[in-house]
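Researcher: Quick test of sequence recovery. Tokens follow.
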């Protein structure tokens, strides 16, 4: 089972990874978007670190909700609302939980994915964060989620043609570039592996 302390450690490590990789994420976004994905995400996660340090959080659902509300208020562009929608959906189904199994966590991620797809009106292979979430959830269910697998998933977005978001304006010129949202999501799954010990 995965307890609340592990969930908190995962989200905290993800925050650290986002801040540490903000330049890289923005460089990816500069190639096919506004160039601000890393900086926007780092702003949100820095705010989350500050808020979390002052809060007593009673359960896993509230951990997710706190992150969601902070990202919604602090992260500009599409990323804030998309990540927030995902974690609010996950929070709703874990509001009374102090621990979850890996399969229950996969179910929560599935709800998060559905929220992202609904909010962003995107589907797999549109070259969005969905193209990280969906295969990573499948790997988690199969007990095959590893750092190497996450890297493969993120890198697999490079040959895709962007069909949603600002990157879609580039058409074929979006091909050959890793999707920034998939990259920040990849950091999320890698932090999960590290802190939860999957």
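Model:
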């Amino acid at each position: 089972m995965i307890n609340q302390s592990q969930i908190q450690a995962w989200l905290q490590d993800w925050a650290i990874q986002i801040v540490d990789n903000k330049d890289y994420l923005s460089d990816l976004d500069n190639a096919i978007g506004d160039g601000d994905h890393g900086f926007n995400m780092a702003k949100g996660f820095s705010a989350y670190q500050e808020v979390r340090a002052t809060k007593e959080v009673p359960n896993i659902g509230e951990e997710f909700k706190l992150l969601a509300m902070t990202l919604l208020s602090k992260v500009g562009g599409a990323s804030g609302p998309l990540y927030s929608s995902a974690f609010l959906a996950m929070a709703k189904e874990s509001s009374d939980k102090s621990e979850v199994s890996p399969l229950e966590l996969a179910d929560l991620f599935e709800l998060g994915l559905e929220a992202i797809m609904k909010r962003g009106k995107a589907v797999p292979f549109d070259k969005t964060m969905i193209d990280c979430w969906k295969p990573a959830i499948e790997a988690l269910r199969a007990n095959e989620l590893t750092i190497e697998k996450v890297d493969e998933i993120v890198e697999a977005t490079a040959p895709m043609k962007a069909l949603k978001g600002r990157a879609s304006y580039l058409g074929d010129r979006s091909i050959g570039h890793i999707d920034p949202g998939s990259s920040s999501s990849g950091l999320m799954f890698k932090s999960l592996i590290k802190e939860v010990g999957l």
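The mean pLDDT is 95.
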